[in-house]
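2024-03-11 09:14:02 DEBUG pipeline.ingest accepted 1 chain
2024-03-11 09:14:02 DEBUG pipeline.ingest length=62
2024-03-11 09:14:03 DEBUG pipeline.predict start
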Amino acid sequence: MAVNQMPVILAPLVPGSLTNLTGSFAPAWALLATLTAVTLTTTQLSHTRERPLKRPGSVGVP
């Protein structure tokens, strides 16, 4: 099994186990909402960095 398939296997198990342990869906939804907020924040912060501007007319070949 490839390493990138592990989240596909674990994603349903973690919220399901949390629901079974607590007897409620609320903690599972809270976990999913928190992970979504962290992912969106991380993505937004990584895309807002300033990138250096190229000189006008430069093609990229020195």
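2024-03-11 09:14:41 DEBUG pipeline.report Residues 26-47 form the longest helix (22 residues).
2024-03-11 09:14:41 DEBUG pipeline.predict end
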